[in-house]
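Journal club prep, notes for RB
We'll compare a predicted complex against what the paper describes. Inputs for the GN1 case:
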Amino acid sequence: MNDHSRLKDIIFQFIEQNEIQVNPLGKGHINDSYKVNSNGNEYVLQRINHHIFKNVPELQDNIFRVTSHIRAKLEAQGETDIKRKVLSLVPAHDGKLYFKDSQGDYWRMMDFISNSKSYDEINSELAYRAGMAFGDFQKMLSDLPGGPLFETIPNFHNMEARLETFRASVKANKAGRLSDREVADLVKEVEARAEEMCKAEQLHRKGKLPNRTNHCDTKVNNILFDEADQVLCVVDLDTVMPGYVLSDFGDFIRSGANTGTEDDEDLDNVSVDLAIFEGYAKGYLQKSASFLTDTEIENLAFGAKLLTYMQTVRFFTDYIDGDTYYKIAYPDHNLVRTKAQFKLLQSLEANFEEMQRIVLQAAGR
Ligand code: GN1
Ligand code: MG
């Protein structure tokens, strides 16, 4: 069976048989996504990477709970364009929110949000709107019924656990990549910051940093905008789970306030764009300052450093392991990503005082 007829077979587990078009969609590093057109309707089909998301039924249940709760809130607010303001899962014919095929792969389907677009590069105004959207998202989920969400990837944004894994990988040196001088130097740079970067877990143990329901993947391209560049909704809900708000602040800055790209080969391109930082901080705090604690606000700028450091460590760990987690486009891709993230971290370190000032001013403190 060729790929196309395999995909068709899967798609008809969710929708009625029809003429369809299927095209690859998006740039995610983990799942595979396709856009499906059928009978005037548009859908997103995704193969869920179940080596990473090991419990697909719980994963889908999280997404169902999150989207149902947001939908109910939007209805109560009198929102009219609900179909474009929150994701809608399309259940399989058997009622399940996923389909497991004969090869053991897991699939899901959603409605495609019509006339929407995402950006990999933005400006300060769009960052401001994205900040409001993620602040709103956290606020809407603050009273999610049914108890905490399932942790779809255990210890996902736990820096202590990430460092433990990193150290085990360095020790195992499975791909033999540590003999390179540049790689060994980067290990030292990671270790030099390790203590500082475990501050969030330390604050949490002291009872000073709460868990909240976070998106945990606030990449700039996980926000959909409409034709007039107004935010429609937040997508990619696989990692919505309990965590520290530093994650949702920090990961947007890491991905959206970089003057270069996540995998820039020219490190001179990479630095923090403070205007975008400020836009996001203002939008996010406009929605969240009322429910965040002083400790959370005082550590948001640190969150930008933390998530950039964490991503450096994650790409680097994958490089040392021999590229088993992230999709790569060429052999040294994970090392290039590691160096670009590390360069961004150095820029965030150099601009830290200014970032702290911007955050406190935006919070009115
Ligand atoms: C992955 O799938 P995608 O591209 O949205 C990763 C994020 C990283 C990001 C780095 C489940 O996100 O945590 O920050 O790559 N998702 C998972 O670009 O590991
Ligand atoms: Mg993702």
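Talking point for the session: The chain has 13 helices and ten strands.
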